[in-house]
């Protein structure tokens, strides 16, 4: 399956997951996990979706970080996450693997930047509070966000596989370029 087809598959699945009663983080994470598993890109068990249970509503309905993007981060980590950080011999090597010139944070940073550019915010409250929480309008807004997060997660997972981690940082708290 090509990148666009995989993105669309994840987008559709994520929306359907939300319609089926999953929260935003579960919806996004499961959609990505199923799509990546079908393509043989990850073999992580579907049960790890349980890691996203507390994420709904900006983590426990607190309205903080949009959990669709956190779910996408979890999905990306099934492929690009460190299975055992202690495989590297020193703290310096472990830090460099994350934030260095070829560090994995660069991939995640780009996904988050693209999400924020497309959606307008990383805050669940900013994205949803203009609507009545129980309204169909808010639910549809969330499904759109969830679908986009899953699609972007797939996109950046595949970019990482094809191009590696050498991408320029966008805004980051380390001050790196």
Topology:
Elements: H1 3-19, H2 24-38, H3 67-80, H4 91-99, H5 105-119, H6 124-128, H7 136-163
Helix pairs in contact: 1-2, 1-7, 2-3, 2-7, 3-7, 5-7
Biggest beta sheet summary:
none
How many helices? The count is 7
The number of E-state strands comes to 0
Q: Mean pLDDT score, rounded? A: 97
Radius of gyration: 16 Å
Elements, N to C (H/E):
HHHHHHH
Strand content: under 5%
Shape: globular
How far the N terminus sits from the C terminus, by CA atoms, comes to 33 Å
Could you list the spans in which at least 5 consecutive residues all have pLDDT below 50?
none
Structural class: mainly alpha
Tally the structural domains.
1
Overall helicity: 55-70%
Please provide a written account of the structure.
By secondary structure, this protein is mainly alpha-helical. 58% of the residues lie in helices and 0% in strands. The protein has one domain (3-163). It has helices spanning 3-19, 24-38, 67-80, 91-99, 105-119, 124-128, 136-163. The longest helix has 28 residues, at 136-163. It is globular and about 50 Å long. The mean pLDDT is 97.
